[in-house]
Amino acid sequence: MSFIEKLQWRAAVKKFDPTKKITATQLDSLLSAVQLAPSSYGLQSYKVIVVQDAKTKEKLRAVGYNQPQITDSAALFVFASLTTIDEAFGKKFIDLVAQTRSVERESLEGYEQVILGTLNSRTDEQKVAWSHKQAYIALGVLLSAAADLGVDAGPMEGFDQEKFDEVLGLKEKGLTTSVIAAVGFRADDDKYSQMIKVRRPKEELFIHI
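The chain above was modelled as a monomer; its predicted structure follows.
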């Protein structure tokens, strides 16, 4: 199938087959795709918790409005924003750039000042809100990559954020949940994946200037 055909096949699956598991290779491909997702300045001011432990998923289902896809999926991806995005974080990223590209750190001073200026110009609340948006970009890449691999994924916003953070111990890690996605394989009787995809026509969705 072409990529567009795979996106046509993709669905926000609500009922997963709990007997079907993703392979280690499939999971690693999804992780690589998320790792390569674009983010502002390349900062990736979030982490992704991949939950496969059955007991943990049961606890998360209890604070996720009892949605079965949390436990029936092969893995639950939890995108979580950092709660502290400060100068130290920006400087650490510049260290990584210098190391990865084998360049003198001093040559990145201009880039560093742009990043630090952006971080310093925002309140802590604004930075976390901005970081949540970056996590959603990574979520989009996950959904597209899953479709490309023939793996199902369903994005989810229906959960208690504070309780998710508590179950996963995110506060202690300096994180807070942004959005989640269940990953696995659709059940044969998942009615939502059998429905014709409904999207606004291109002439209504796009404005050409």
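DSSP finds ten helices and four strands in the chain.
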